[in-house]
Design brief:
binds magnesium ion, alpha/beta, 12 strands, eight-stranded mixed beta sheet, binds adenosine-5'-triphosphate, 2 domains, 12 helices, Rossmann fold
Length: 331
């Protein structure tokens, strides 16, 4: 598969106030701190990691919703980090986002029709019969009855609101959709419906997804490949099968071991769902030296405290940044 998007050395530092009550200083919060990532055309790349590790920031950088501190993003053959506002607006058509909290993302004073139509109007369409037809088609695609078009967000359930959010993101027929924890705020029973809908729409419309989630359980079915993020860095990326069969970074192993077990027979045997990673994620204001995971890693070695491990292949399409991993086999 060809690359639809390529990120090279992507960095996002937020300038924040830190320090005690008397001495406050401005410090760089390293939300994303040097990420190389490829998203292939037509795939779903899962992106997982604990809260605060930089997933949303990375997702937003990739589609240039926020400007990067350093690094480049090449989308569909075009470098987008340095685009002028006008060129950026044109490029944005092809890159959309679905948010975690559909209620927060929808304007409560706009009807469903207005909400879904708005991106078309922003991009120069007129309020015509044709535009309304496009909304009709979109409602049908996301499984909402046409009769809902004049209703308002508060009249819907969480799952239905997320369908509206998806319709709004897809009306411009983008190539890439960043799904930022699109099911995390929903009831478990509704989560699968929305994941299945996204999966069906991907097939119908030939979409490419970056699918962000906290844990490896959610992305397992929908992903083609999975990237694992820790404190501003991608520490492992692999084809789905390879990642779940041979997780190579101790952090990935820990994440995998903490996936909640939903099957009753396994739950009874006490399998899974152990909180295996000791301690909290360190602050992005002062990340640990060397390997950022060394403060919590059960296999920490002296080298981990001093040298940052580089990404190395451990198999075909499987890269990991860990000193435990010897350089990969010749390929
Ligand atoms: N606008 C901002 N200004 C300052 N710091 C920010 C800003 N946005 C995010 N951060 C910080 O950047 C880091 C990464 O945040 P981000 O939201 O990308 O994490 P995340 O992995 O998406 O977390 P979650 O799983 O909770 O959504 C966090 O430390 C966060 O506090
Ligand atoms: Mg987030």
């Amino acid at each position: 598969m060809a690359a639809l998007l390529e990120a090279i050395g992507l960095v996002k530092h937020y300038d924040v106030e830190a320090g005690g009550f008397f001495r406050r200083t401005r410090t760089a919060l390293r939300a994303v701190d040097g990420v190389d990532l490829t998203i292939r055309s037509g795939e779903t790349l899962g992106l997982v990691g604990e809260s605060g590790c930089g997933k949303s920031t990375l997702g937003r950088l990739l589609i240039r919703l926020i400007p990067a501190t350093a690094g480049q993003v090449v989308f569909d053959g075009q470098e987008i980090t340095g685009l002028s506002p006008k060129a950026l607006r044109a490029a944005r058509r092809a890159m959309q986002i679905v948010f975690q909290d559909p209620f927060g993302a929808l304007n409560p004073r706009m009807s469903v029709e207005e909400t879904i139509m708005e991106p078309l109007l922003i991009h120069g369409a007129r309020r015509s019969a044709e535009t309304r037809q496009a909304v009709t088609r979109m409602l049908d695609m996301v499984g909402l009855p046409d009769s809902t078009r004049y209703r308002f967000p508060h009249e819907f359930s969480g799952g239905q609101r997320q369908r509206i959010g998806i319709a709004r993101a897809l009306i411009l027929r983008p190539k890439l959709v960043v799904c930022d924890e699109p099911v995390s705020a929903l009831d478990v029973s509704v989560q699968a419906q929305i994941v299945n809908l996204l999966s069906d729409l991907q097939g119908e419309l030939g979409l490419t997804y970056l699918f962000i989630a906290h844990d490896l359980g959610v992305v397992k079915h929908i992903s083609t490949r999975v990237a694992v993020m820790y404190l501003g860095k991608v520490v492992e990326v692999a084809d789905k099968r390879s990642l779940y069969a041979r997780p190579s970074h101790p952090y990935t192993q820990a994440l995998l071991a903490s996936v909640p077990v939903t099957h009753p027979s396994q739950r009874k045997r006490g399998v899974g769902a152990q909180p295996v990673i000791a301690g909290d994620i360190p602050t992005a204001l002062a990340p640990p030296s060397g390997c950022r995971f060394h403060t919590r890693c059960p296999h920490v070695m002296p080298v981990c405290r001093t040298d940052e491990p580089a990404m190395r292949p451990v198999g075909t399409g499987h890269d990991v940044a860990c000193h435990l991993v010897a350089p990969g086999p010749p390929m």
